[in-house]
Task: structure prediction
Amino acid sequence: MFHPAIFLHAARIAIVGGLILSGSQFVRAGEWASLKGRFVVDGDTPAPVAITADKDIEVCGKHKLVNEEVVVAEDGGLANVVIFVRSKKVTVHPDLEDGSKAAPVVLDNKDCRFEPHVGFVQTEQTLTIKNSDPIGHNSNIATMKNSPSNSLIPSKGSSDVTFSRDEAIPAAVTCNIHPWMKAYLVIRPNPYGAVSGKDGSFVIENLPVGEELEFQLWHEKGGYLDEFKIGGKKTDAKRGRIDFTVESGDTDLGDIVIDAKVFK
Result:
């Protein structure tokens, strides 16, 4: 694993065997590579605000519920950042082209919250909405291009949803029965996206080698992330958009550092 040297120019980057070069394009048809990194906050962020359950208190009142807009690990790792390929034209790995053949994405109603808080799903991929709680929930998905979805899910039940069209912005998911519950789904036409975990890390696999792609970065509180540092170098990414060309191998961007002021 390595941390590439990085040179930025107009937010256009080529990653070549660990060295990032600007203004270049390399095409290697039929090769695939992964892109990984870790989102980190520089500075202090507000402490999570506690949520007081006012419905089904006998169940929901047992859990320590907090606002999950900004989730930061002790070492600064930032969870729930979405990074995805925004390019309309992208060569997709043959095994990943058909979203209907992909493993289902699971959104669980658990402990009176949604798990995960932010999810990524490909068009035609099955979204299985579960309810692990002993009480009923509903999952109201606020899409703009797809048909409305508002599943009432009994305890231990589940419901499957698919989306035929991608969404330009993340779709909010709410429970009308328990109004503090909220999540987001990023619905895209290709499989190339990831959500950072609790430690801030992410990985996108099977990207086409040598193909310049436009990525976009989004966070619930920070919105489209315009400013961050990679390899200690500051870059400006208008509406969170940045171009990468990924070369062969396991490319690790290292820490992508975001100023804490973005989340205040």
Summary: The helical segments are 57-60. Confidence is low (pLDDT under 50) at residues 1-27. Residues 57-60 form the longest helix (4 residues). Residues 1-57+76-91+196-264 form a domain with the Immunoglobulin-like fold (CATH 2.60.40.10).
